[in-house]
Specification:
heterodimer, A: 149 residues, B: 10% strand, metal-binding (chain B)
Amino acid sequence: MALPKRIIKETERLVADPAPGITAAPHEDNLRYFDVTIQGPDGSPFQNGVFHLELFLPEEYPMSPPKVRFLTKIYHPNIDKLGRICLDILKDKWSPALQIRTVLLSIQALLSAPNPDDPLATDVAKHYKENEKDAQRVSREWTEKYASQ
Amino acid sequence: MHFSKTYAQLLLTLPPEFRNNAFEYRKLKQLINQIVFELDSLGLAPSFLRSLHDHGPEMVSRMSRNITDGTLTVDSESMSGASHRQTIVYEIVWNSSVLQPRLRLSSSSPSDVPIHRNSIPSTIQPVCHVNLPIPERSLSHITQALLHTPIIFGDEMSLINHSMESDQPDDLIIPLPSDMAFFQLLTSTLSSLSGYLNMLEQGFNPVLTTLAASISSAARPASSSAPRSFSPYSLAADHSMSLCPGPGGKSDLCTWREIFRLYVEAEVFESVSESTRGERSIEEVEKHLELFKGHVQEKKEYLVFPRSREAFAVFLNLNLFILNVKKFQLANSEATRKILKKHTKRTTLPIPSCLQERDASTPTASSCQLALITRPSKSLPRLLVQAIGEVLLPIIPHIDDYSCLICASIAFKPIRLCCGHFFCVRCLVKMQRRRMADCPMCRAHTVLQANPSNVDYGLLNLMADWFPIESREKQHANEREVVQEQLEALGITDARICRIM
């Protein structure tokens, strides 16, 4: 099945004009599968970390959202051990007008603003709610340990 | 290489009318030499002044921001510790629309500061000045020098008047005629320059409008080249007819669209990419302009009308003109910066920072009065590039303004939802089948309500008229997709069967 025009256009722009702190490159043998890196935002406990993710565009895309997962271990209340991300636009708030670029920017923003009230990793969320400073310290440690280049 | 040489060489590459309005860099340099000579004869040789900087407490550069009441704030820090200090102040006053630089020698006890000069007449107000604290014994040396060199001032001697500023009777005011000539030449050059640039801008716009008119007359939509065969879309019309533009209808629409697309993509003057956003350097502009010319070389052969070819030449010339203006403006601001730097270096009279401020982010009464910094808040080349973007490029509708956000192709046929957003009919059909109710743009629950009455016929006509090829292709693609879906519904999934049909 030929790649839809929309995916070709999105890929071209992602490669030619990447968003700051974000890279996304399609696999040669599967143009719907992307290797993604996101730099930890400055001022967050994930600063200086480079996180690897995988992104897959299902057949239904853009009618259904891309599937995105962290490959790098990360201590974040909305990201679980398997790297799954709790983000509304990847689920029920998906809109076909959103793009790979906007999704990745949203994930980058999620690193800056963890939301422990809507947790995926309940233990991390609990830690963040009870002692934010200490939780951030652990996030920094994990960033140092797993996400440094 | 000396800057004056670089500057002169650059001017030679520009059209002669630019040259006539250029900086008299050499003359300004000569004036600086005269200032040095003048200071020398005052016993204030730059080397002497420099030694004051080096040994005295930190030099104070002050300027009065608040010119209306003439209040001067004095950095009392630098005055502390000295019971009785004599200072020499380099100040520039704004007097009857002329910048008058002068030196003020004062011996004042600390109790006199901060000084409130509310009594200064409004015509003579120090705009900025610089303090040079000097050792006590040096002052007598200077005063002696002064007494021995009355000749320099000629009839301006009367200005060295102890009682000129009533509140500081002990102050000696020394006018600096060469310095004044320097600032006069500089300000008059800068103001005539800004006048010249204004003139250039005003001359640019009519050329652009004429060009826009001539291109639009050559790049007509499908309807104008075959007026009889065009029938507007409506619920009742025969749709298969109106998508075909009349045969033999000549228009440079597609070629011009392609040329403009290449121009926008070349991002000649300003980059819009995430990492390098902003105005480009001269070298970058030249490079991207060449790239554009290279890409467009082949396309422009397709221009049918002679007036299109002429218009293209004018278009290229406009871009070259903007490039020249950019070069000229950059060289001039560099010249200003360099000459002021040279002034400071040679005379050791520090030019107060308010004269050097480049951006007018904090416009104050004083900075408005200083003709030195009447630089346009926006660069002229930028304004001209904007004018191209606003006047010229929109005369040919751009496909991006008419594409469906979901499939990224032209939104044909366009369905306008009740919330005002439009998408192509195929994408909305797919959304309805999946019971997706929210508008992809605004999340209003308008998708499921859409029905054939939501077809935007005005937009549809415009698309068929201005994008005949794209609309036709999208229409065919839509039809193929429908057939495919029907086959799939029947259980036939091999795509090849569909092609045979």
